[in-house]
Amino acid sequence: PVSLSCLAQLHSLRISVPPDLRPEEARRAVMVQVGELLRRHGEAGLPRLDPLEDMDLRDPQLPEIVGRIEALEAQLSRNPVFRAEKDATKLAPYLRRAALAARAEELRGQMRTSQLSAFREEAGCRMAVLRRLGHIDEEGVVTLKGRAACEIDTADELLAAELLLNGTFSRLEPAQLVALASCLVPVEKSAEAIKLTAQMAEPLAQLQAAARHIAEVSRECKLDLDPEEYVEGFKPALMDVMYAWSKGATFEQVCDMTDIFEGSLVRATRRLDELLGQLAAAAAAVGDMQLADKIRAATETIR
């Protein structure tokens, strides 16, 4: 049996085919006969069956169809790409390119699978961090501390929740609270050396200790996190500036305290205002209404 897609043309020549083509000798004998016919007819090709003369088909549209087919075949035979297909060496680079493109797509699929696997592994490590820090319990249920962290999205929620619940914010006066929270707000680099007042040295040390604890827990849970780099990410560049602003200094006075541009100061203050609002909501979420009111009062000092 031969499928119809294997048939290319019908010719008027016939060869004798053995009744059983399974033996190798029988197949070789057929191929010898075909090869001899091809050699004898050369470039002219084997004579094809004519649907009108040889097959006696009398469909009135058939002559027009046959004429169109012959015209298209003649046009095709003049096409350089069609002729090049007979020379495998000319198409080899294109075939190789197609094979490489298919291989590239296969590798991209493997990369996507690998990235998904890496994501699952990292997600497991992050779940372990949340469990160690008390944001979720052993069953993966969000705890009260986790609910507080969920209220914060403008800063590092792990560190913010840590400072909120370990009593750091509760022990600070409003201006100190504002100044310490400014370390959580990203700000452009300052070329000036940072000079902190005595009132802010201890709160900053507490923030850095909490950040180092989070980083060390993350490293122990196999997350790629450098503790020193993580701690250095919370820069106290605006602590004294925000402390003075909260205490009632003029805008001109606070601008003279830093080389950061005025527009950047305004933008940082607006971000700090948003962060303080989220910290107040987080304190309320854990039921500490006294701290929530204190943070809201501190927010009013910078508005």
From TrEMBL:
Coiled-coil residue windows: none
GO BP annotations, alphabetical order: maturation of 5.8S rRNA
Domain of life: Eukaryota
TM stretches of this protein: none
Gene3D superfamilies: 1.10.3380.30, 2.40.30.300
Domain ATP-dependent RNA helicase Ski2/MTR4 C-terminal intervals: 137-302
Gene Ontology cellular component terms for the protein in this record: nucleus
GO molecular function per UniProt: ATP binding; helicase activity; hydrolase activity
Pfam families: DSHCT, MTR4_beta-barrel
UniProt KW keywords: ATP-binding, Helicase, Hydrolase, Nucleotide-binding
Name of protein: ATP-dependent RNA helicase Ski2/MTR4 C-terminal domain-containing protein
Organism: Astrephomene gubernaculifera
